[in-house]
Design a protein that fits this description.
By secondary structure, this protein is an all-alpha fold. 57% of the residues lie in helices and 0% in strands.
Amino acid sequence: MSSSHAAARWPRYLFYPLALAATLAFIHASVGGLLGPLGKAYPAYLAAMIATMVTLERLMPMRREWNMTKASFFTRDLPMLVVNGATIAAATWAVTWLATHHRGLPVLRSSLPWQGEAVCAVLLSDFLWYWLHRYSHEGRGPLARWLWKTHAIHHLPGEVYVFMHVVGHPINSAYVRVLLMLPAILFGFSPEAVFAASVFNGFQGLVSHFNVDARAGWFNRLLTGTELHRFHHSANRDEAGNYGATVSIWDQLFGTFRLPAAAPRQLGVDDRAQYPGDRKWLRLLGLPFR
């Protein structure tokens, strides 16, 4: 095998385990105080991770037609990033304030070490998201239809890449944020555990929309990464399972795990003509109210 061919293939097998190891090492160093106050180094970690992934998408995309363009970034991704960023910040503040001022919280104080609490936070929040996410796709009735309208924006693009992760309705962003915080509030998890779970969930969200042929191997039986979540965005409903955002164990337990041999032929939704254009985000924001 030539050196250039080997260089083109290395992200397929090595990127995910290396990025996962780097994320876990960052969490350990942050909690241990090696990087200053807890969370201080997170912007640098996040910028380095995004820069690496976007560069690899440019150099060796799985499919060039799935890549980010200037038009998609400035007319869709950037506005969604601003709107959803503000929504997540507001939801975080509101839930934190409520938890701080409610005498009945936490309902049960955890006595686990921060590592155990972080694992519980990831598993419990993803369990809640799995069922709400699945119901928004497969459910029937007015509530399911309304939930789908808040979630559909994320599925309308015909591409999948790192910055496409931010595409979504602010209502969807708000209730996802509440679900992610709920286990920590109910069981009084430590700040270290909350930080670790948040960083790990964020990493999985980025890597799951990575437009590089990155293979996770046996990690697919534990975590929802690039290969699994790409099928969730398939326009073919028979392929589009994988409702877990971070772990794949709930999909395996409840029969929605999908990992076909080949990548999806088409991304998006099968009834695309029924929706506004995915860059007409002002019309899309009104979708749940119509």
